[in-house]
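User: Can you predict the 3D structure for this chain?
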Amino acid sequence: MGQKIIRFSDLTGKHVEDEDDLVRVVVREHPELADGPVEIEALAGELTEVRGLALDLVTVELHHPDAEGPETVVMTAEAFDRLAVAAPMAEVLRGAKRVARSLPAQAASVAGTGAGRERVNYASLEHAGRPHKGRTTDAEKQLVRQHLDEVNERLAAEGIRTVDLANPEHVARYGLEDLAAERGATLG
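Assistant: Here is the predicted structure, written as structure tokens:
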């Protein structure tokens, strides 16, 4: 006797006709999450607006002299920028003193670690090619170009989308035009 598994989008309940259209979504932080991250599945077409809805956020730590530890506050970059009245925030940040990093590099990629979170270095082989907001540095582009197969192997093992030479957005983001042509990829 055979079995047939019918899959549905967790977001809309729509039937998944093609497994390749299914996207794994890991929700790391949400007001309703009490016990850590969860995983849902959705159709790629249902997620087209996600990048456009993304917010530019700033995470700051407030170290009050009379407090036991720092208070972490997350706000929009626009609201944070309005706090600087003597000079533009970009200028304030350029002139600011660097802070020593307090967490090991591996912990930096784990969301929800609380106070003291570090930025992920996407220009390292450990993180290159991961989806992220913000600009892709030349160093990350070069790493992805030079180690594409290794990067994709790591991303697939982590359950993250791979860098696709047939995806025009990926090709443009990582400067993979020559590699895509060399491997005969047809941009879709």
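The chain has three domains: 1-52, 55-103, 120-188. The CA atoms of residues 57 and 101 lie 20 Å apart.
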